[in-house]
Amino acid sequence: MRTREDVIISVMQKNYFLGKLSGLLILSAILVLLGTLLGSIGASWNMAGSDQTVLFDIRLPRSLGAYLAGALLGLAGGIAQSLFRNPLADPYLLGSASGALLGVGSILCFAYLGNSWLDIIGLNGGAFLGALIGVLASLLLAGGYKSSLRLLLSGVVISVILGAANSLFTFIRPDLFQSIQSFMLGNTTLLSWSGVAIMAIALVMCLLITLIISPALDALSLGENTARTLGLPLDQLRLVLIGILALATGCAVAQTGLVAFVGLAAPHLVRTLSGGRQRVQILFSCLGGGILLLSSDLIARTLFAPIEIPVGVVTAVLGGLYLLALLRRTSFGAHS
Prior knowledge:
The longest helix has 34 residues, at 4-37. Helices cover 78% and strands 1% of the residues. With 336 residues, it is an all-alpha fold.
């Protein structure tokens, strides 16, 4: 039977969660509004004429798309760090990044041969399929999904192998270097309403499934042996989580390229807000990833306007500085 103190604590925790959630949602809405109004050519306030086209056909889908891509990477990063119990795990560790780059390189390299099916797949489709192939190759090399350590090491090996294949593409077709480099640095300028719809559907589906099976992540955080004593089907749940990780990463990468540090830094940014609960941590990681990528996109398009810098450069600087500060604070805390 719950005591009065238990009820008070439960209400306080609920209010704390709702307060932090509301704050993140309000900040997200403000950033989307700013992303719609601000651009490399200045601010647009007129809701009619040519400004309407700029606002609702270019900037709004770009801002929403950047936010959704960041949310997908934040979700994937939260899953990766919980699944592998490694605070340095990111969405690209299972070969999805190298696979996506290989898919883009393949489309660019062989499209000149006149293959109609390559035109149908397109660069986004090639990146998505490449990311899934990279993850499947990691699973195959690891001999399954039951050993997190083997899977992690297999992802590193596959990334190296696929990275060598990407280097071979640029050696064969040096004229493609600039296009591949643009994909590697991240690009939000080509986001459209169709891309926004795809990422929104993927995010809702991946997030709902993850929240439903989040008790498995809570159990895994205690260690695999302890988790198995709770009677959870860990092997099946681990496979589902790997599938969500691959799908979320593939969708984001297919639309925005290889945006660095978002999936790694976003879970750390919101960890102190989650209270140690995996369900809250995953949800806040989504919001944190969206805020981080959209903020970086705003900086990328306005810092040196009218020149835009690659958004991946901004996320690498911001994420790297934050993680460096976090490392220094952790080191000082350990010595004190």
